[in-house]
């Protein structure tokens, strides 16, 4: 089979690999679609993990082999995959900090080498411990919608970490694919969203996804907009879906006492974030983050996406063949004005 193999920083090569061997507890899935995730982009660009690997974890495809001990799946099933599953029993899991669980940190899907998702390939092996996260795709829905379950899950997990009530005012900074998902899921929850972005075209889409107000940055007037929208109280929460310290600090200043600041895009280690600790201690402004997905939300995520209550189709703007994976990653890392969600489509080759 063909796969896009990570050989070092910014070095992806289309190579021929053996189709993964599967055991009695595994599935073999022919990949149709895999989304390009910012987490993988950072690993590829900064070389934070050792090569060789095959990345890609927002994956959907067709079951082509079912292990003898596997129940509930058949050859021909169209499925969306989920590469991390927690043990649900350790100290971290009992505190619902699933992404810190050692079992969760194991990747259960591979196309070869160290398991790393494998979706940038033609076939993947799905290991037994992640089978509970595999979701069948209804006949009316596309593989592309299936591939979007994992990123939607990460967003819903973050929303659930916030203490929000219907009618609250929340800032979503950044209206890329992730920010737009936040905007829609918050709107479904009855929250009033202020959406900000550098691009007017994205703000237009944010209004379609449920934003009550939009603000183009850079530009003056955000504090006045927040004051007007919140009747002078300030933001109930701010979600930072862009890796910008300046944006986070501005949003933190606009929170009401007892408000919450959620970092979602600050995943690069080593940066220093300067924060007035009295704003946390005296003003009781919560400072929190959210990382990766929550397996226990998978069924709810599937209902949201497959019912199209959260319609992910308008988010998908570019599709690349497997041998163009490096181009797909480059575009996702530095998107043009018309670029939102980027997909690699081995199944179309």
Please give the structural blueprint.
Blueprint (H helix, E strand, L loop, with lengths): L1 E7 L2 E6 L10 E9 L2 H9 L11 E9 L11 E3 L10 H4 L7 H4 L3 E2 L12 E4 L8 E2 L6 H5 L1 H13 L7 E5 L3 H12 L3 E6 L2 H9 L4 E4 L5 H8 L5 E6 L4 H9 L1 E9 L13 H5 L4 E4 L8 H9 L9 E5 L4 H9 L7 E4 L5
Parallel strand pairs: 9-10, 9-12, 10-11, 12-13, 13-14, 15-16
Antiparallel strand pairs: 1-2, 3-4, 3-7, 3-16, 4-5, 5-8, 6-7
Characteristics:
2 domains, 16 strands, Rossmann fold, alpha/beta, Quinone Oxidoreductase, Chain A, domain 1, 349 residues
Estimate the global geometry from the Cα principal axes. globular
Mean residue pLDDT: 96
What name does CATH use for the topology of the largest domain?
Answer: Quinone Oxidoreductase, Chain A, domain 1
Major sheet:
8 strands, mixed
Q: Low-confidence stretches at least 5 residues in length (pLDDT < 50)?
A: none
Q: What is the CATH top level name of the largest domain?
A: Alpha Beta
Tell me which CATH architecture of the largest domain applies here.
Alpha-Beta Complex
Task: Evaluate the radius of gyration.
Answer: 20 Å
Note the run of SSEs as H and E.
EEEHEEHHEEEHHEHEHEHEHEHEHEHE
Q: How many separate domains make up the residues?
A: 2
Based on secondary structure, the structural category is alpha/beta
Helix content: 25-40%
For CATH, the homologous superfamily of the largest domain is named as Medium-chain alcohol dehydrogenases, catalytic domain
User: Total helix count?
Assistant: 12
Distance linking N and C termini: 12 Å
Q: Work out the number of β strands.
A: 16
């Amino acid at each position: 089979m063909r796969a896009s193999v990570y050989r070092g920083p910014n070095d992806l090569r289309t190579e021929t690999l053996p189709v993964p061997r599967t055991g009695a507890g595994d599935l073999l899935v022919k990949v149709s679609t895999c989304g390009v995730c910012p987490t993988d982009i950072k690993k590829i660009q900064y070389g934070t993990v050792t090569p060789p690997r095959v990345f890609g974890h927002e994956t959907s495809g067709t079951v082509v082999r079912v292990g003898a001990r596997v129940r509930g799946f058949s050859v021909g099933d169209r499925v969306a995959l989920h590469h991390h599953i927690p043990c649900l029993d350790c100290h971290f899991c009992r505190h619902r900090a699933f992404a810190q669980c050692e079992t969760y940190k194991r990747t259960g899907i591979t196309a070869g080498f160290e398991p790393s998702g494998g979706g940038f390939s033609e076939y993947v092996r799905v290991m037994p411990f992640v089978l509970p996260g595999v979701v069948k795709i209804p006949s009316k829905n596309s593989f592309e919608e299936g591939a979007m379950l994992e990123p939607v899950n990460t967003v819903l997990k973050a929303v659930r970490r916030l203490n929000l009530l219907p009618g609250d005012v929340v800032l979503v900074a950044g209206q890329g694919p992730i920010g737009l998902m936040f905007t829609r899921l918050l709107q479904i929850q009855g929250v009033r969203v202020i959406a900000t972005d550098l691009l007017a075209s994205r703000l237009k889409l944010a209004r379609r996804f449920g934003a009550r107000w939009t603000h183009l940055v850079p530009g003056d007037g955000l504090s006045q907009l927040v004051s007007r929208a919140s009747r002078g109280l300030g933001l109930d929460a701010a979600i930072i879906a862009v890796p910008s310290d300046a944006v986070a600090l501005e949003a933190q200043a606009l929170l009401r006492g007892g408000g919450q600041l959620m970092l979602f895009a600050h995943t690069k280690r080593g940066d220093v974030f300067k924060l007035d600790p009295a704003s946390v201690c005296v003003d009781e402004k919560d400072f929190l983050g959210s990382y990766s997905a929550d397996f226990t939300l998978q069924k709810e995520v599937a209902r949201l996406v497959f019912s199209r209550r959260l319609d992910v189709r308008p988010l998908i703007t570019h599709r690349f063949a497997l041998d163009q994976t490096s181009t797909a990653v480059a575009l996702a890392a530095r998107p043009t004005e018309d670029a939102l969600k980027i997909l690699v489509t081995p199944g179309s080759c």
